[in-house]
Amino acid sequence: MNCTKCLNQKHPQMSNNREYSLTVQELGVTAREVTDYITKDDTPEKEFFTQQVAAELEEMKDEKVLFGYSIFSASIKDFILTTNNTQFNIGHDVSLMLRSAEKIVLFACTLSERLDNIITKYKSNNQYLEAYLMDITGTVIIGKTAEKVLELIKNNKAFEGYKITNTISPGNCGWPVEEQKKLFSLLPDSFLNISLNESGMMHPVKSLTGVIGIGERVIYKQTECRYCKSRNCPYRKEEYV
To answer: Can you list the alpha helix ranges (DSSP code H) found in 18-127?
Structure first.
């Protein structure tokens, strides 16, 4: 893993403000992971999709995936997360997930605009199946990149003896997506070259931000999907209940 030099710190009280990059090939995403995301059933159609995705991944193998994080002290009260004089209205469910956190990691990860351009090109040529497969490919790549952020925090010697939570993102589990703006206000300027529009949507489209809680009593769960209220979340791993 290649670690670039630390970013210029807009907030001097930050620690471990880092930016990293991997290629798609180094990240280790496979075509089967992508098509398993679509369906677990083995069908002739799935085999065809897998071959299509494998060819696209070969073309994308040298594309850079960028990711990074900043760490802050935090407190949670009445469904409000407060960090660095900024208040996040995280709601009931996210408050439960982060309730014992002593610090939080604000993270972001993104894939280059090239994937956005490929999807747009396929759509303009009415190749909607190809566009769909590439959209799911980007989702899997970014999901796996978020797992890499978790791995970095787990292996950070500064937090030896502490536990971490799952990644939690604005737009999920009742946390308003508009809070992306507050999150980005705490990250360095032009962090990972991700930009936001007025509604809080990110560009490049295949980008993800969120928080990870750190503390002696926090709990990591393999998935919170069963209880999440975001029925159509693209990262859902369990059936909506």
So the answer is: 24-27, 31-38, 44-60, 91-98, 113-124
